[in-house]
Amino acid sequence: MDNATIRRILDDSKTIAMVGLSGNWYRPSYFAAKYLLERGYNVVPVNPNYKEILGQKCYPNLESIPGKVDVVDLFQKVEQVPQFVQPAIDMGARVLWLQLGIVHEEAAAQAREAGLDVVMDRCMKIEYARLFGGLNWAGVNTGIISAKRPRRLP
User: Fold this and answer.
1) 151-154 long-range contacts, Cβ below 8 Å, gap at least 24?
2) Cβ neighbours around 86 below 10 Å, total
3) d(CA 24, CA 133)
4) Domain parsing of the chain, residue ranges
5) pTM for the whole structure
6) Tens digits of per-residue pLDDT, 106-120?
């Protein structure tokens, strides 16, 4: 995906449902959510194991989120991705975002067919810092968050 499209997505999006957001401060999802909250995004945690993360009410699934969501950001194992595509479509999300290391072509095709933009194998935090952080983003794209190669399914 080209920089202009990612920039447009980040500019146009206000509310991000983070599926699999962890309440553990040392997890990549926690870092990403904290960073995006600090930049003015509304982050909606989706994780049935928590009532609240980073001061935000947590929801057990996408279907239970009230209101509009622009981006469904998945911190999930690649084999879990397909189960979130239809709920993302049904809730009117405009973007399906698969985090670093996650590529699922079949799920991406289903989302695109429904009119969603799809970003795979990228981190919103890293992309925001890279595109909007100027020269101060050194070190965020180090591969530390995920040194593994993308996991792919059809």
Assistant:
1) 151/77, 151/78, 151/101, 151/102, 151/103, 152/78, 152/103, 152/104, 152/105, 153/78, 153/79, 153/81, 153/103, 153/104, 153/105, 153/106, 153/107, 154/104, 154/105, 154/106
2) 14
3) 25
4) 3-153
5) 0.87
6) 999 999 999 999 999
Q: Tokens at residue 49, please?
A: 């194991």
**104-108 contacts, C-beta under 8 A, 24 or more apart:** 104/78, 104/152, 104/153, 104/154, 105/152, 105/153, 105/154, 106/82, 106/153, 106/154, 107/81, 107/82, 107/153
Single-letter residue type at 69? V
- 9-47 per-position pLDDT tens digit: 999 999 999 999 999 999 999 999 999 999 999 999 999
Question: Which 8-state DSSP code applies to residue 73?
Answer: E
CA 56, 111, 4, 98 dihedral sign is: positive
**Radius of gyration over alpha carbons of the chain, in Å?**
14
Class of domain 3-153: alpha beta
Q: What is the number of other CB atoms lying within 10 angstroms of the CB of residue 47?
A: 19
